[in-house]
Design a protein that fits this description.
single chain, OB fold (Dihydrolipoamide Acetyltransferase, E2P), Rossmann fold, 3 domains, 8-stranded mixed beta sheet, 7-stranded mixed beta sheet, binds S-adenosylmethionine
């Protein structure tokens, strides 16, 4: 066992690690700590150029250290121990550092009123062997979680009821590995039951177990790529800025409704300011960003790879009453050029919205944006500033960053969401 060492935290760096130096000058990343704090830490992994450590004890606490609300807070992020204003200062500092050489102007912050109780989706893991149900810690072990202060209260209520019943599930029925709960603001909850083993199937008992609360409106079984509604409805609907959107079972939907509304307002403001008319919405999910612009732009063309989103897309297009919305279920990487060659859209697309997963844009999408001189504006919603940096550097010779916003979609965690507006250089 390694011995515990004392370090002084120099900075909190993305993604949420406390950076310090060992006596020999080697960098060490600790899982919790605030700049200025002296910590006792235990080295858990040694690498060539840096080490990783876990906090043992805080020797001199920062003035920004507060008591966390969740006992399991470290499974999500260590930021619950930092007062909210300082969390924002840290995130802005990290973002400014990562954008060096790309964007040096002011980054405006868009912050939520709800600093807790905001997540509308949560996944709990079931460790049947030890009869422990909750979140995974950094070692991959499941730890008991009864409720979480980051998720909507209705989800905690449903989870507690489900959890109380799990212990009674007989050994032959213990086939569910994870349970995802999703909620809307009308108080409806969807239960997603995940099965790891392709040979297993869930029994009727799981329907009874999941229907433990009047809020539950549907149960869906997920096995690999196979998604099957097994009781009630297989979707939820939510109203954002006055427009209704449906999202089916496992389809992506923004997890913080309040911040999603703020992001949509900001996107609309920028789209109006830049006079965008024909918009390609890559990574469109269930159509949220593109369709939110139905009264602002002339045409939206969406591209999304997940066929579950494809179930919701025509419905959301109908709800929006926007005739000029079309879409394709395919990978953006495969079809960007093809979409642009479409006769109805040819020469017309002037703007592109990109909202990729954490891995950011593929090379083919980046090249498409760079080489296509008809595209004058790109609105880039990003959930990972590292891949955003890579993509912006690639686009830099052709686009300048007009404006970057930091949107705090995930208070109490290290996550950084941004909206960047790029304009083609003349
Ligand atoms: C961050 S979500 C954004 C969804 C949507 N813009 C929204 O705000 O609800 C990213 C979406 O990209 C989709 N996706 C992932 N890889 C893709 C690809 N190569 N081509 C198209 N869509 C992809 C995912 O299924 C997911 O729906």
């Amino acid at each position: 066992m390694t011995e515990d060492i004392k370090v002084v935290v120099k900075d909190v760096v993305y993604p949420g690690k406390a950076l310090a130096k060992r006596e020999n000058g080697k960098t060490i990343f600790v899982d919790e700590g605030i700049d200025g704090e002296e910590l006792l830490v235990r080295v858990v992994r040694e690498h060539k150029t840096y080490d990783e450590a876990t906090l043992v004890r805080v020797l001199s606490p920062s003035e920004h250290r507060i008591d966390p609300r969740c006992s399991h807070y470290r499974t999500c992020s260590s930021y619950q121990i930092i007062d909210y204003d300082y969390q924002i200062r840290i995130k802005l500092r990290q973002l400014a550092n990562m954008m060096k050489g790309i964007y040096t102007q002011r980054i405006d912050s868009v912050l939520p009123n709800n600093k807790f109780d905001y997540r509308n989706k949560v996944t709990f893991h079931l460790d049947w062997e030890n009869e422990v149900f909750g979140y995974r810690d950094w070692l991959g072990n499941v730890i008991e979680v009864d409720s979480c202060h980051l998720v909507m209260p209705i989800l905690n209520r449903v989870w507690r009821r489900i959890k109380d019943r799990l212990i009674k599930v007989g050994p032959q029925h213990r086939v569910v590995s994870d349970i995802t709960l999703r909620a809307n603001r009308s108080g409806e909850v969807l239960v997603l039951l995940h099965i790891d083993n392709p040979k297993e199937e869930i029994s009727e008992d799981w329907i009874e177990l999941s229907c433990c609360d009047k809020a539950v409106v549907g149960i869906v079984r997920i096995k690999g790529k196979s998604v099957k509604g097994i009781w009630g409805q297989d979707y939820l609907e939510e109203v954002l800025n006055g427009k209704t959107y449906r999202f089916h079972s496992s389809a992506f939907f923004q997890v913080n409704y309040e911040m999603a509304e703020k992001a949509l307002s900001l996107l609309k403001k920028e789209v109006i300011e830049e006079d965008s008319r024909v918009v390609l919405d890559l990574f469109c999910g269930v159509g949220l960003l593109g369709l939110s612009l139905s009264d602002t732009v002339r045409w939206v063309y969406g591209v999304e790879s997940d066929s579950v989103c494809g179930k919701s897309l025509p419905i959301n297009a109908d709800y929006s009453g926007f005739g000029n919305f079309s879409y394709k279920i395919a990978s953006s990487s495969d079809v960007v050029w093809e979409v642009f060659e479409d006769n109805t859209l040819k020469k017309k697309i002037d703007s592109v919205i990109v909202d990729p997963p954490r891995r950011g844009l593929s090379k083919s999408v980046r090249e498409f944006l760079r080489k296509n001189s008809k595209i004058k504006k790109v609105f880039y919603l990003s959930c990972d500033p590292m891949t955003l940096r890579r993509d912006l550097l690639y686009l830099k010779p052709v686009y300048k960053v007009k404006k970057m916003y930091f949107l705090d979609f995930f208070p109490q965690t290290y996550h950084i969401e941004t909206l960047t507006v790029l304009l083609r250089r003349k």
